[in-house]
Amino acid sequence: xxxxxxxxxxxxxxxxxxxxxxxxxxxxxxxxxxxxxxxxxxxxxxxxxxxxxxxxxxxxxxxxxxxxxxxxxxxxxxxxxxxxxxxxxxxxxxxxxxxxxxxxxxxxxxxxxxxxxxxxxxxxxxxxxxxxxxxxxxxxxxxxxxxxxxxxxxxxxxxxxxxxxxxxxxxxxxxxxxxxxxxxxxxxxxxxxxxxxxxxxxxxxxx
Length: 207
Description:
Elements: E1 3-6, H1 19-22, E2 27-29, H2 41-52, E3 59-63, H3 65-77, E4 81-85, H4 96-102, H5 110-124, H6 127-134, H7 137-146, E5 159-165, E6 179-181, H8 188-191, H9 193-203
Parallel strand pairs: 1-2, 1-3, 3-4, 4-5, 5-6
Helix pairs in contact: 2-3, 5-6
């Protein structure tokens, strides 16, 4: 079964570079497609579908924004299972403070933040900073707004496999049918890679 896992916003497939992920057969950890001015979650989802030839029999998932795009892919293609890692099925789970900040996305000094993130990556050998420094600032700004205009899962019915950090302050963990990683924050794919990889193994091939 073909499985596609997307990164978070401002990240890439290096989120899943830990050996515990690479040992799992049948999963493709992909980067975001080249940004071509898409202004909605739906438009990004369609770009991912085209780039990776995603069909109904695939499993899709992702971290944070990647999980939201995966949900939208499932709705478009008719996929029966999505895997969410610190993500959400609706924008209402996103910290409302970030909703207010999204209005300032056009004024945020993304390129300056990226520049200093790159310097920090050299100093600390941080993959996280390096990913952010290399991401497209226009994509980040546009998606900050697009998240809060997204419909979410809505009335679409599919199996949602959800793992989430108990201390995630970016996207609040749902209260139902969620595997909670105690003490985990928003980046559990990187901080708790062994647990997330085990979750993949346990859920990808289950009906």
